[in-house]
Design goal:
- There is one protein chain.
- This protein is an alpha/beta fold.
- The chain folds into 2 domains: 92 residues, Rossmann fold; 110 residues, UDP N-Acetylglucosamine Acyltransferase, domain 1, CATH 2.160.10.10.
- It is 17% helix and 28% strand.
- It is built from 3 helices and 23 strands.
- The chain has an 8-stranded mixed beta sheet, with no helix packed on it. It has a 6-stranded parallel beta sheet with strand order 6-9-12-15-18-21, with no helix packed on it. A 5-stranded parallel beta sheet has the order 7-10-13-16-19, with no helix packed on it.
- The termini are far apart.
Length: 214
């Protein structure tokens, strides 16, 4: 990240604070926050604009340049929302970099999509491919040759063993483990602490050890 790169963030809650720490550590600054709710700014002295209308007003009033980048600070199983907001940013010519905490381990032989975030002590191993607007949260591990679609969230401490495929917008809960060579379907939800031993159908929710559909 170039020094003094300017960022805007959509989402004004705890995840915005996490991204702020990474941006500040790498020499960037945050100049605006956006949120669909009229809530306090999560970052002191950074103005908050409400909803798409607030964003569009900011975009018209602020003389931003191509040096402005954007991140979406909305976690959970809200991958579709992250993608939609990234598309809005793209429409206005704002950059969508990926970002990683300095303590994250990311293989040079991996591919990270636009707007994807790898938080503190996250691991992306060799040969893995992550789509757009993914979140690999604190201490989460994506082992070798995994493939994640767009808008996937791997929650804190979750582990994907090697050669796992995760469909678009799926959510892997905190501390869950997905065994090797399995497929997690689009929009599936893996409950916290689950141990997944077989493929998970699109749109389904599984919990427990071994994981079972509910």
């Amino acid at each position: 990240m170039p020094n003094q790169e300017q960022f805007v963030i959509w989402g004004s809650a705890g995840h915005a604070k996490v991204l702020s720490d990474i941006i500040n550590t790498q020499g960037g600054t945050i100049i605006a926050l956006f949120d669909n709710r009229n809530v306090p700014s999560a970052i002191p002295n950074v103005p908050l604009y409400v909803g798409q209308s607030g964003f569009e007003k900011w975009a018209m009033d602020f003389n931003y340049t191509s040096s402005v980048s954007a991140l979406v600070a909305i976690g959970g199983n809200s991958g579709r929302d992250r993608i939609a907001i990234q598309q809005l940013f793209t429409k206005f010519g704002i950059n969508l970099p990926s970002i990683a905490h300095p303590s994250a381990s990311i293989s040079n032989n991996s591919c990270i999509g636009a707007g994807t975030q790898v938080l503190a002590q996250g691991v992306i191993a060799a040969g893995s491919t992550l789509g757009k607007a993914c979140i690999v949260n604190h201490h989460a591990s994506v082992d070798h040759e995994c493939t994640l679609g767009d808008g996937v969230h791997i929650a804190p401490g979750a582990v994907l063993c090697g050669c796992v495929t995760v469909g678009d917008f799926a959510f892997i809960g905190a501390g869950a483990v997905v065994l090797p060579r399995l497929t997690i379907g689009k929009e599936a939800i893996i409950g916290a602490g689950a141990v997944v031993t077989k493929d998970v159908a699109p749109g389904s929710t599984v919990v427990g050890n071994p994981a079972r559909q509910i």
